[in-house]
Amino acid sequence: MKPLIGISCCVKQFGVFGTANHAASHTYIHATDNVVGGVPILVPANGALADIATLVSRLDGLILTGSRSNVAPTNYEGPAHAEGTPEDHDRDGVTLPLIRAAVAAGLPVLAICRGMQEMNVALGGSLHQRLQDLPDRIDHSTPMSPHPRVRTGKSHAVRVAPGSWLHRVCGRDQIPVNSLHNQGVDRLAPGLVVDATAPDGTVEAVHATSGPGFAVGVQWHPEYDWERDEISRQIFVAFGEAVRARLAAPARLSAAD
After folding, report:
1. Catalytic residue from among 140, 181, 207, 221
2. Helix axes 89-105 and 114-122, enclosed angle (nearest 10)
3. Is the whole-model pTM more than 0.90?
4. Number of domains in the chain
5. Mean pLDDT of 177-203
6. 96/100 Cα distance (integer angstroms)
7. Which of 181, 199, 198, 112 is closest to 142 using CA atoms?
8. Of these residues, 10, 113, 128, 170, which one is catalytic?
9. 128 part of the active site
């Protein structure tokens, strides 16, 4: 049987009446089906009603998705967002405790863009709200172009830390990435290690050392181009391998007994 891969949802309004829906981009489903080799299971953004213990016990892996919404600053004692900044409190109410429980349980986690920001906040870090407003920072926000290849194309390089999980995946000291975010890591959470940085010092990849399993984050979007970019593909491959290794571990222990 294939592993069950949880994919975090956002609350989004669809249709002529703006009805609330729980949604995740097809790109994450597509990567889960075709690279991870798992069954994608959408995790609704149902806030305090989420049963975190059940999710962690039933899922075999967790992908934390990107989103237009920003992590609410009340979760890291930050100043209020500028007026009009999109937030999703119900998503925060699920993902933040889910990350803590998943990391502690050794459930493999792949956190992407907002997902990496959530991981940092969940484990005790804080965020810059608008990197483009900071001195000596480049603009990391989404290029406003109608052409998908422009919006999601490579934007800048990142420096990869030698010996990191990302270095093992890509085998390079520097790789090009896309860039579609405003927020970024400010204070790094205890138990997170930086695996890549942008030329301006922005944290671009991390892994967690506070739990027993695979828990990593990237600030860019490998789900956009894994079909044509081998490094993006290998990020999902590494996540899938971690999922299957965890599933196989109890069987190996039983066989040894």
Report:
1. 221
2. 70
3. yes
4. 1
5. 93
6. 7
7. 181
8. 113
9. no
Whether 144 shows a pLDDT value over 50: the answer reads yes
Tokens of 153: 């194309």
Contact 50, 109 (CB under 8 A): no
- How far is Cα 102 from Cα 51, in angstroms, rounded to an integer? 13
* Domain of residue 195, CATH code: 3.40.50.880
223 in active site: yes
Structure token digits, residue 165: 């999980």
Spatial separation of the C-alpha atoms in residues 117 and 102, rounded to whole Å:
16
Which residues fall within 8 angstroms of residue 40, CB to CB, at 6 or more apart? 5, 7, 28, 29, 32, 33
Q: 15 or 188: which carries more pLDDT confidence? A: 188
Average pLDDT over residues 147-166: 85
Rounded to whole angstroms, the Cα distance separating 173 from 121 reads 27
Q: How confident is the model at residue 182 (pLDDT cuts 50, 70, 90)?
A: confident
Give Cβ neighbours of residue 68 (< 8 Å, ≥ 6 apart). 86
Q: Tell which residue, 93, 81, 198, has the closest CA to residue 128.
A: 81
Between 252 and 21, where is the model more confident?
21
The mean per-residue pLDDT over the stretch 111-139 comes to 91
Per the annotation, the verdict on 170 as an active-site residue is no
User: How many angstroms separate the CA atoms of 244 and 229, rounded?
Assistant: 23
Residue 23, class by beta-carbon neighbours within 10 Å (0-12 exposed, 13-18 middle, 19+ buried)?
middle
Neighbour order of strands in the sheet with 109-112: 39-43, 4-8, 61-64, 109-112, 215-218, 203-208, 192-197, 156-160, 174-177
Tell me which residue has tokens 């899938």: 240
254: confidence class by pLDDT, cuts 50, 70, 90: very low
Domain region containing 99: 4-256
